[in-house]
Write a structure and sequence with these properties.
This is NADP oxidoreductase coenzyme F420-dependent. InterPro entries: NAD(P)-bd_dom_sf, P5C_Rdtase_cat_N, STEAP_metalloreductase. It comes from Streptomyces bingchenggensis (strain BCW-1). By secondary structure, the protein is α/β, with parallel strands linked by helices. Helices cover about 25% and strands about 15% of the residues. It has a single domain (about 40-215), classed as 3-Layer(aba) Sandwich (Rossmann fold), CATH 3.40.50. The strands form two sheets. The protein has a five-stranded mixed sheet, sandwiched between helices. Helix 1 links the parallel strand 1 and strand 2. The radius of gyration is 17 Å and the shape is globular. It binds NADP nicotinamide-adenine-dinucleotide phosphate. NADP nicotinamide-adenine-dinucleotide phosphate (NAP) binds near residues 34, 71, 108 and 112.
Length: about 220
């Protein structure tokens, strides 16, 4: 709710199931169907288990900046051959499904929501944290960067959507940089398999320079 944004939430079960969350978030939040939320957003954040990507409403997402937080997890999502063999990425599959009039920007996928909630800082703060983004549309990346600025984050552009693999699960930029411990303290993190104690660690800032260095370490 940072930055005076109004938020429209949706899920698969219907807006009535979000009443408690809406009450908790306050008067700038409301709940709607997925199609209504997609139509309402200046920015639309898609955060569903990846296996649900082809049930998202396509028509209202046309011409929108679609921020894709998803990570593919074979255990949760079932095996998807093109992802298992590395020939494409989950965000590219979402882009294909939505069609080229929607502009997918991969972001937020490499930071746990509990860390995201506390690492925001004003522009210029010494301990401001940076988040990587990837996307094929320059204007949509500028638009996403604007949102992250409102939310209190810097942005590092990792390149086209295919480069989202540089901050996918198992890469150095995934999860670990946003904790109080150095990234090297962790092995390769996968979705849902954070090592014991990971979430009890304090969040720790990661600068744009650190994120750039970690992206460069990832194999392409
Ligand atoms: N949790 C994190 O901190 C985090 C961080 C980075 C990235 N991610 C990624 O973000 C994605 C979501 O993770 P999560 O932890 O938020 O999962 P989650 O707790 O299982 O929540 C998923 C949400 O998606 C909704 N949903 C499922 N199918 C839908 C559909 N077809 N249309 C509309 N809404 C639908 C669910 O609604 P119902 O409950 O009504 O079914 C639920 O609200 C995953 O790909 C994950 O890897 C998560």
């Amino acid at each position: 709710m940072n930055g005076g944004l109004h938020i429209v939430l949706s899920n698969s079960r219907g807006p009535q199931t979000l009443a408690n969350l809406v009450a908790e978030l306050g008067p700038r939040a409301r709940a709607a169907t997925a199609a209504e939320a997609a139509a309402a957003g200046d920015w639309v954040v898609v955060t569903v288990p990846f296996k649900a990507y082809d049930s998202l409403p396509r028509e209202p997402l046309a011409s929108k900046t679609v921020i894709d937080t998803s990570n593919y997890s074979p255990q949760r999502d079932g095996g998807i051959q093109a992802l298992d063999n590395g020939s494409t990425t989950s965000s590219e599959l979402l882009q294909q499904y939505l069609g080229e009039s929607a502009h997918v920007v991969k972001a937020f996928n490499n930071i746990h929501h509990q860390h995201l909630a506390v690492l925001n800082r004003p522009a210029g703060a010494e301990d401001r944290t940076a988040l990587p983004i990837a996307g094929d549309n320059t204007e949509a990346k500028r638009h996403a960067t604007e949102l992250f600025g409102i939310l209190g984050y810097d942005t590092v552009d990792a390149g086209p959507l295919a480069q989202g693999r540089r901050f996918a699960p198992g890469t150095p930029a995934y999860g670990a940089p946003y904790t109080e411990l150095p990234s090297e303290s962790f092995g390769s993190l996968a979705p849902g398999s954070a090592p014991a104690g990971f979430l009890s660690l304090q969040a720790g800032p990661a600068s744009a320079a650190e994120i750039r260095a970690l992206l460069a370490k990832a194999q392409n």
